[in-house]
């Protein structure tokens, strides 16, 4: 049995709202949100780590490319545990790379580098960790998407209205890049 807490983000969470407190979260029982066709589960965030890092999973079906974006102050890692995920990254000189990541593969995206990803197989899962001097961005998922208690993927994709994308950079270190093109294959 896990303890539930009320937080400033949710009426019920299994993640304690204050830092420095040990806790355990059973599989799938973190703070969940639906965004696009994916289920995002946050296990640790800024409140628990003094804004040092966050830890989350993204599960999804084979689908469309997540829109190109960057984090000005945040470094992000992608570690694939299931399926296959294609990671697209552009470095500070404008050189683009893409790599198909399968279970056990790791991808690193430095701060200020445009990136995107696409689930290439159904039931793919990525473990994500993000850290940087600007804090963490894990609450972005439920603010751009929809918080959920559901354990599975959304029945219909959750696509935010266009204007909602513009509200994100000031509050979370996520800046979308409309019209960004990937020149890789």
TrEMBL record:
Signal sequence, renumbered to the chain: none
Pfam family for this entry, one: Cupin_2
Domain Cupin type-2: start-end pairs: 60-119
Region (Disordered): 1-22
InterPro entries given in the database record: Cupin_2, QDO-like, RmlC-like_jellyroll, RmlC_Cupin_sf
Top-level lineage group: Bacteria
Name of this chain's protein: Cupin type-2 domain-containing protein
Organism placement in taxonomy: Bacteria, Bacillati, Actinomycetota, Actinomycetes, Kitasatosporales
